[in-house]
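Risk mitigation, structural track. In case the binding assays with cobalamin fail to produce interpretable data, a predicted complex structure has been prepared as a fallback.
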Amino acid sequence: MTRLAMVYPSKYKETHGEELLYSPLALAYLARHTPDTFRISLHDEYVGEDVDPDTLQADLVAFSPITPGISRAYALADRLRRRGIVCVGGGAHVSALPEEALQHFDTVIVGEGEGPWREYLADFQAGRTRARYDGRMDVTLENLGTPRRDLIHPNYEYPSVMTSRGCPYGCSFCYLTVFRHRKYRTIPHDTIIEDLDSVRRSPIVVVTDENFMGYSDADVEDRMTLLERMIRRNYGFFWGCQTVVGIAERPELMKLMYRAGCRAVFLGFEAVDEASLREVNKKQNVGVDYKEAIRKIHDQNIGVIASCILGMDSHDKDYPKRLIRQLKDAKADFPRVFLMTAWPGTPLFKKLNEDGRASTEWDRVRKDMPSIEYKHFTHEEVLAAKKEILDSFFNVWNISKITLWWVFKDRSILGQFLRMAFRNRVSEWIKRSRIQKSRPKAELPEGAAPQVDTVR
Ligand code: B12
Ligand code: SF4
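Fallback model:
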């Protein structure tokens, strides 16, 4: 039996703070595509125990890092390889910077993982691996199977579920632009239902598709058939999903979503000015009347979480106030505010890096920490602006107003919204304690500073 350790490396412990804690799926999917001749252990540093590279018992270690966890992955791999353990890495950061990753991993897997992972493992067992394997982003999901949920750490608050993959748009900040052939594909309904059956006891489920609704009439038809099956299964959980503003024009779809338990959609508004939308190539939102869109979604008793980016070049000092005014006018239930972040491999990173404004200090590249040079804000100012926006929504008066509105409209949405509101109030405290838990300097690669920043 080959001992395979799978690792989500993280420099930070994630707590039940501003981030809703829902499970990652990459390694659980890859585990499904791992032959029985491997004995798998999964180590999740986001919410579980840290990996000790000096004592970990493994023949092969597979890392699934995201950008702020990459230095942790490299530090672990460097130590493990000194012990003769083979290390392999995949995911968005590795796909963006395979040459950098190859300085620390024996092999990198670029793009969507399942296909090349199977090939890599076969080569590993035959003792003839290459340095790089490439996965395509347009492969059918017919044989994807369900994620191995038995391996997901129990500390996650909510299970995440995928019903589709991919997005053909090209927003300049989005990490998905790293991958070529970003085709939207749906997972077979039998597979999704099998997966949903396994999480049916959870009160809340988070659908982490890039866009649940899809992009064509045929996609919407597919979703509606799936939803009808979900309704027949009579699941007791509520769920939320990411999707696009265009869902407002699909009342029949939303009706079924509601009946299947959907109570909130997370919409990438990103910005309220046309210039800002054009700046980040979010063309699909240009000309959309957000107020009207939210009204139509609310008509179906589904709440709207408005995801916005702060710190684009077109965001002047008055922008936060404009954003607050327009989101309130549009009656968005709550905003999520992310700082403009340049993920490696994205068009945004390329542009800002050329201007010397992007950070390559990967530990800092998080959506809740300033990591680029903003045109109109200092780092302190952008954090203060974010706080101003959140405070204007997450205050007793506003929360009471929204609560009252939903009490009369549809009570079933309330529990989750109040929970979110509470979280945002305590997030500052939680994040501070999380940062205090960051790793000691000795575990970081040479030259990297330990994280001692405050985040708001
Ligand atoms: C669930 C989730 C979380 C969970 C768990 C994190 C995790 N490990 O994924 C939580 C809530 C904890 C979380 C937190 C954060 N997250 Co998060 N999260 C997601 C989310 C919604 C789903 C990830 C997922 O499971 N996808 C499904 C799987 C199947 O796809 P995948 O991860 O791309 O994996 C495939 C390939 O990439 C590849 N692959 C991946 N790993 C490996 C490894 C090997 C060995 C191989 C062969 C292949 C391979 O094969 C996989 C299967 O095809 C994504 C967005 C998204 N829709 O993907 C963001 C995302 C991963 N998060 C992101 C970020 C930035 C964060 C935060 C840093 C947010 C912040 N505060 O700024 C935090 C902090 C994380 C930390 N501790 O450092 C970014 C990462 C960007 C980047 N370039 O790294 C994403 C992409 C969202 C975004 N666009 O901003 N997140
Ligand atoms: S629509 Fe969403 S998932 Fe698609 S490219 Fe833009 S930000 Fe990324």
